[in-house]
Amino acid sequence: MKSYFPLIIGMTLVTYLPRLIPLALLNNRNINKSLKEFLLYIPYTSLSILIIRGILTAADGMKIVTVIGVGIAAIISYIKGNLVLSVLAGIILSFLAINTLV
């Protein structure tokens, strides 16, 4: 049996280093206020793109479940403003809807 450990280590480095290097290089620098504000919107934009793509490509039997999950995530995100909480709530409610409706 082949060892997958070198492959796992290589994939870890390839994934982690592009995130670590900019953080290490820009650690003590002052970033322009407009750039900093722009960077704050990237997680929300990425999540929005993934959600819209998920809705548009959902299977025929999963459209209702997808809309339920996205709806609860949007409501919680609007009320609480917490990205992690809204995503987790959307996942949990979608899971429950799949197990009860489908």
Structural write-up:
This protein is 79% helix and 0% strand. With 102 residues, it is mostly helical. It is flat and about 50 Å long. The protein is built from five helices and no strands. The protein has helices at residues 5-25, 33-40, 42-56, 63-80, 83-101.
Features:
102 residues, mainly alpha, flat
- Following the backbone from N to C, one meets helices and strands in this order, namely HHHHH
Rg over alpha carbons: 19 Å
As residue ranges, the low-confidence spans are: none
The rough form would be described as flat
Look at the structure and give the mean pLDDT.
84
Number of helices: 5
Largest sheet: none
Strand content: under 5%
Secondary structure: number of strands: 0
* Distance N to C terminus: 41 Å
Global structural class: mainly alpha
Can you give the helix content as a percent range? over 70%
